């Protein structure tokens, strides 16, 4: 998102600081969390990025995740449709496991677009 101009460098720094201090992430599905900073923290557009880890890591001493979705938006309303589609994909199409099984980025994009 940084390379594509969706966020400024400060967004990453603020998000990481908030994760360490305030823990602003939400478990969307088993092993899937979403992390973000605020709309005024350097978001230039709306976007999502996905990180798939080889194994689950602990967050906040009670959650474990191997999929981290980063959300950025410059408008508090603009991202709501994408967030609803993501939630539907995770809940109704076993999206977490679809993400885990994807062999590469292209396969993952095809699977996600097929379901939403």
Helix and strand succession? HEEEEHHH
Q: What is the makeup of the main sheet?
A: 4 strands, mixed
This entry's quaternary arrangement is single chain
Rg on CA atoms, Å:
14 Å
**How much β-strand is present in the residues?**
25-35%
| The CATH H-level homologous superfamily | Mannitol-specific EII, Chain A
| Number of separate strands | 4
Shape: globular
Helix coverage percent: 25-40%
Q: List segments where confidence is low: pLDDT < 50 over at least 5 consecutive residues.
A: none
Give the mean pLDDT: 89
CATH A-level architecture? 3-Layer(aba) Sandwich
Sequence of strands across the biggest β-sheet: 1-2-4-3
Distance between the termini: 21 Å
Output the number of helix runs.
4
How would you characterize this protein structure?
The chain has a single domain (9-115), classed as Mannitol-specific EII, Chain A. Helices cover 38% and strands 28% of the residues. It has four helices and four strands. 26% of the residues are buried. The model has no long low-confidence stretch (mean pLDDT 89). One of its GO terms (molecular function) is kinase activity.
Topology:
Elements: H1 9-21, E1 25-29, E2 32-36, E3 47-59, E4 63-72, H2 80-92, H3 95-101, H4 105-115
Parallel strand pairs: 2-4
Antiparallel strand pairs: 1-2, 3-4
Task: List the defining traits of the structure above.
116 residues, Mannitol-specific EII, Chain A, four-stranded mixed β-sheet, globular
């Amino acid at each position: 998102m940084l390379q594509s101009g969706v966020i400024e460098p400060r967004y990453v720094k603020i998000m990481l600081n908030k994760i360490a201090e305030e823990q602003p992430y939400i478990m969307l599905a088993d092993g899937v969390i979403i992390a973000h900073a605020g709309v005024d923290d350097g978001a230039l557009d709306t976007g999502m990025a996905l990180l798939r880890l080889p194994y689950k890591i602990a967050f906040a001493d009670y959650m474990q995740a191997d999929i981290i979705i980063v959300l950025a938006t410059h408008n508090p309303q603009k991202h709501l449709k994408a967030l609803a589609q993501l939630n539907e994909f995770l809940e109704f199409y076993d999206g977490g496991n679809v993400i885990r099984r994807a062999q590469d980025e292209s396969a993952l994009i095809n699977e996600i677009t097929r379901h939403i």
